Amino acid sequence: MSKSILVTGGTKGIGRAIIFKFAEAGFDIYTCSRNESELQQLKEEVEGTFSGIKLRYQQADFSNMEEVARFADWVKSQTIPDVLVNNAGVFLPGSIHNEPEGNFELMMHTNLFSVYHLTRAFTQEMMERKSGHIFSMGSIAGLTAYANGGTYAISKWALLGFTKCLRQELMEYGIKVTSVMPGATLTASWEGVDIPEERFMKASDVAEAVWSAYNLSPQSVVEEIVIRPQLGDI
Predict the structure, then answer these.
(1) Cβ(143)–Cβ(181) below 8 Å
(2) Within the chain, what is the greatest distance between any pair of CA atoms?
(3) pTM above 0.90, yes or no
(4) Distance, CA of 124 to CA of 37 (rounded, Å)
(5) Cα of 70 vs its chain's centroid, Å
(6) Residue 189: what pLDDT?
(7) Active site (catalytic) residues
(8) Phi and psi of 229, rounded to 5°?
(9) Is 100 exposed, middle or buried (0-12, 13-18, 19+ CB in 10 A)?
(10) C-alpha 198, offset from chain centre
């Protein structure tokens, strides 16, 4: 029986790179995003590239907790994934004192609350099975304060705390929990900026780090992955 991985926000950037890496290794894929046509295109690309691999998807907006619950129920009706990658997120720059009203709620719901609720949907079954690996896609903004980070940074600091607590809860059940904190990666979040491409990390490098952490023996776990551009933060 083939293994499966659930990657939220899978159509672009790091999520997409992780999907391709695990599909190459024979994992069936479950994913979601807000854009139905991009999901269908991803399915065609993955299944057309990797023989025998199935990519199943559902459209979902992770700022809406009802849609998170609906997506979780849909996945659970088919499988309990071997790997869960909480990757969906949104970045809106701004400072705490003057960012637009609603930024806080949107980013906290998307970047933190959705991870909390989606993870809880699968933990009991993973605990009973005594296996699984949960990755939370944070950011170096969850380690270092940035003046223009605003709520995004707050959500990523909180996500790191959530993941640390989850690790302590699940370690005795054989479930691994890893925080991934990338620096500036060439994804849609940076579209339009006047910065040379070579200053950014590649999404495929983050995917390789996730794959390497997953492949350790049962006796070891990578608790935190911090990856920065070679020339430093942007």
Answers:
(1) yes
(2) 52
(3) yes
(4) 33
(5) 18
(6) 66
(7) 152
(8) -55, 145
(9) exposed
(10) 24
| Tens-digit pLDDT profile for residues 21-69 | 999 999 999 999 999 999 999 999 999 999 999 999 999 999 999 999 9
For domain 4-227, the CATH class is alpha beta
Indicate the pLDDT class of residue 163, thresholds 50, 70 and 90: very high
Angstrom CA distances, 2 to 25, 54, 81, 86, 218, stand at 10, 10, 11, 21, 19
Query: What does the pLDDT read at residue 124?
Result: 98
In angstroms, what is the C-alpha Rg of the chain?
Answer: 17
Cα dist from 134 to 25, 85, 113, whole Å: 18, 6, 16
User: What are φ and ψ of residue 38, in 5° steps?
Assistant: -70, -35
Closest CA relative to residue 50, chosen from 30, 27, 78 = 27
Pairwise CA distance, residues 207 & 21, whole Å: 7
* Band (186; pLDDT cuts 50, 70, 90): confident
Given a contact cutoff of 8 angstroms between Cβ atoms, the answer to whether 23 and 7 are in contact is no
What are the sequence ranges of the domains in the chain?
A: 4-227
